[in-house]
Amino acid sequence: MKEFLTFAFLGIGLGSLYSLASQGLLVVYRGSGILNFAQGAVGMVGAYIYWELDHQHGLPYGVALILGVAASALIGALTQVLIMGPLRRSAPLVRIVATLGLLIVLQAAVILRYGSGVVVVHSELPTTTWHILGGVAVQESRMILLGIAVVITAVLFWAYRYTSFGRATAAVSQNQRSAAALGWSPDLIATANWALGAGLGGLAAVLIAPIAQLQASTMTNLVLAAMAAALIASFRSFPICLLAGVLLGIGQTEIQNYWDVHVSGLSPSFPFIVIVLVMIVRGQALPLRDAFLQRLPAVGRAHLRPIAIILGIAIYSAGILALDKSWVNGFITTFGFGLVLLSIVVLTGYTGQISLCQFALAGVGAYIASRLVSVWHWPFELGFIAGIVGTVPVGMIFALPAVRARGVNLAIVTLGLGTAVNLLVFNSGPLTGGFTGTVVPHPKIFGYDIFAVTYPQRYAFFGFVLFILAAVSVSSIRRSRTGRQLIAVRTNERAAAALGINVRSIKLYAFGVAAAIAAAGGILIAFENKTIFYGQFDPLTSINAMAWAVIGGVGFIHGASVGAWFAPGALGTVLGDKIYGNLGNYILLIGGGFLLLTVLQTPNGVAAVQAEKLRPLGQMIGRRVKWLWAEPKPIELPTPERQRVAPKTLRVDNLVVRYGRVTAVAGFSTEVRPGTVVGLIGPNGAGKTSVIDGITGFTTPTEGRVYIDEVDVTGTGVAQRAQMGLSRSFQSLELFEDLTVLENLRTAADPRDKVSYLRDLVYPVNPPLPGTAVAAITEFRLGDDLDRVVENLSYGQRRLLAIARAVAISPSILLLDEPAAGLGESESRELAQLVRRLCDDWGMSILLIEHDMDFVMSICDHIEVLDFGKQIATGTPAEIKSNPHVVAAYLGVEDPEEAAQAAEADAMKGAVG
Amino acid sequence: MIKHRRALAAVGAGVLATVLVAACSSSKKSTDTGTGSSNASGSSSGTAPSGPALKVMTIVPLSGNGVVYPQESAGAQATVKWVNANGGVAGHPLDLEVCDDQNSPNGAAACGQKAVDDKVVAVVGSFSLYGNSFMTALTSASIPYIGPCCPFASQEVASPNSFIFSAGSLISVGEGIAAGQVNGKTGTVVAVETASPATDYSNKLIQAGLKSTGFTGTFKPITVSAQATDYAPTVAQATNGSSTIIVGLGQQQAQAFFPALASAGGKQHIIGIGGNSLASSVVKANADATNGATVVDYYPPLQSSDKWKPFIDAFAKYASSDQKNLDISLLGAETTWIGFKVMKQVGDKMSGDITASAFLATLQKSTSVDTGGLTPPLDLSKPFSAKSLSSLYNTSLTFEKVDNGKITWPDSKFIDAGPAFLQYVGG
Questions:
Q1: Mean pLDDT, residues B300-315
Q2: Chain B residues near residue A22 by CB distance under 8 angstroms
Q3: Against a cut of 0.80, is the pTM above it?
């Protein structure tokens, strides 16, 4: 017991380090919505400056401390002003990568000035040990640190809740425009928060330095672990962050004492395991209604251009054959990392999942293949395939906690998984062959020796072939229905689910495919040597891989081959060495600076710029020699056949939707039969969209049932209901902005068969457009704009496309949410006719929300009226028009009952006299 | 667009500023491929070397994610300058190339390839975590690999072209022997090691050393993560009921471990590794915590033994101003001196063309190489009988003592740890 308590107190010491390190992280997040991966590095710079002033120039402790903290705060403020400010409308991925660039630059600068070695810092805090409770040792310095952490937490808690600065921060983070309208400058608030957060990071680093000693990467490692505490606190609550940090410290220390001797690497991976567990328990299936769309990095079209492929093969082959061995090794490394970056293109570029563990998955592939080859004497060919195939389930298991997370949370979870695997498996003696390690024989393909040390060119061509195969596969995915589903999920999960796409399955698929591609890269990299070095598959390289992918262009296949040049030992390093000699740590600085420039200037990546510039050239060549450019044939629309959809009845029984204490819908019932249009009207805020959300499954109703053809679907998910024939359009359109009109429609219309998931890895088969999609194109006159990207369409066309897409899924039941909003008079009339035709000619059951009374009255067979969530009237258009309750609701009469009686009296008078 | 340009300019200015800061500041290590002077100036003894320069290489981590050893590169550069000021090797000046393995297997492989491409005559006094990445290239080109610091990769310690004068395995055995001697036969001996795939093996070797002294008590191994920040828990584990603590950490981790140990006020016997966990920089910074500790080393203590004087003098004379503060008692620096001394000793006897393979052949025939008393005379014609360590030609250790911040060598004796290793561990 005494031992347990001793280590618990020691754990409090470690926990206060975590708390101090993570408070600044929380401040930056609350103030600007950014997860600052460079938090540790910013603090570390302040600590180094403190050390130089204190230990080398002899300034008093207090002065040096303040100056060090001020330096960190200044860096924070500059970061916001110069980097994060310009990026405020960019996607979370781009902003995360910007902080990575900052991390790399700061670390490189510090190493260049102070060296990589450890700097000894003397402690200003007392170093005595108390002994309490008869033998439990407690360090005074750690308790002081805990005290400081508690005080800082209390001050932050008070400041962010009760001061106007705190309120301003909250306002800006929730709604920038409104806050600005109220007179608070979002930029100033964000800068102040960055300065405060960075300053806190500097303070933490200075306080921690005597305990951990000072080195370029110490604080970064500490902050990565401290992210667990911040995550538990949802990046919001300072007191919970403090408590979580302390508990993490205690847990880690107890595990270190009791378990580390049995399971190597368990205690340092504890915070990361906690991260994964927290995400499994928490997390949300679909984003809430108010998640606003941000500019995501562009996605390429991935057309296979023969001219580009031929040139690429020719140039790279010539390089491998003609240049000397150091170049060839550079090619090998480039291909290996190119594969890892391709996996990021699929997972992050196409599917929008920020994964910071791809290099760890590469290591898993290398592990499986090399252990099979070394220990069980499998031939290399089989081991290679087994490594790729075996990593797929690992990738899918990694995906499970990730499926419920997104954005920043997803980044941290994947980082946690990758770190845990590295600590528990790759650095474990027993699992990696102990002292002698894992030794593999020369890799051979059907007897042909391709060992990199003796036959570097053969190995390089092996890697090149792998990369080409993977690139062709990824291109096929992009151009196929699977690719459209990936991009749909990336762009708008809600809309994707409404089209019947199983968002969760798609994410698992993406993780699985990405894992396989990364594994190929990992095996290529690992088998360069006879002895396999698993430790090289470390978390920092996974983070860097994301950065390189963004530089190259995370949505472009070509981006993977460009980004890979930046990996250490790849062609960029070789080139740099040849031109400048041994660059050493300067290449890190250059890489980080380049990353920042790319993120600011060309967030779509180098490949995007290249594609734009080279396309005219390619088209010119294509006009001379058609097959070199291979422009795809324009789509020929078959003549539309009018087909009736499977008739289904929608029945809603006493639907109640409550959000917390607010009742949005207080009991709604209706029935929509095939061939009828039911209108749903009511004043703004009456709960109409909530009704649709409840019917489609976007919201779980508190009470009530929904039936499709008398099958109770109340418990099923959005995608399943869509697959049963229930389709909706959105008030906010929710189109896939990056895709073309045709791709939007195809995404809706594609059959969702399981075979295509595998076949699309090899060859895309685009089925002929179904009748509903063709009809939608013709009816809505979208035929000329099929190849235009959605963001370039006019407002009216976008509205029509939104409806067309909902129709293209060939639904039996169609729910339209304010389809005519913003349309002119004649357009509205045309739309009304179209909706009527869908119902009469196609046999759909349609439920329609609209404000335009002419629209509603002219086409609805039946109308339901909502007011303050209550269903106040139901009937034919004529009945509703004269219903006094309805009139009162729309005009706002004081006493609806009195008005109703007066109206009845009028009616009777009219009847009598 | 203008905003972007401003941002671009600002970032560019920022990058430029950091580069200037870095360039103007004192760099603590050299990142260039330094070259030793080919022409001696003002040589103190011997004739100025003439004839074509002999290319040599030292491989050492100077950048990347992991421990770096600028001390080793500085030691090599100063030593080569001294060699060239003292007649070179067989009258040829040495042309040194320091290759940074960038703490990665690719970097190490690139250095190996460079050695072959540049036709170096020998790779001397190196250190790398990825030895197997370059050994294949060196072995196939018959390039001798002389006197690396702390080799542990299988090909580094057992190849026909490798000549190592120190091996971590024997240090581990030595730690056990020293611990057994100061601790007595009973009690608990704790070993604190950095967690790595080699940890289990190191612990096995320590136990072998302990057993050879007749120790019958408890042996408790403790591991520390390489990324550890707070060493207080480790110290608590180590001091819990133990009588002796073996500190098997590297110099950088030891710098954080000993203050924590001092805080906890432990009274255990301390055993450490010279040039590593008890390097003189560590001992100086933690005089109280390390007072009375036993230092297991391959060589006499640099601080107090006059046998190191030539190296100390050479370093003082030839090191550049920003290298002068580096701690050359680190094993990596010491072994560069010994490695080049062996090269000079053996090479001076050669005549005619000195190529890598000729040099290798001569090394394999040398029976009594004098390192200036830093080791017993070395017989390079007889590989060690343990096949996994066949390239080890020096199994002698020194047991030193820390005395108020200084390291002394009380018995001035070399202790042969070979027999203990062979008996308890085998081939």
A1: 91
A2: none
A3: yes
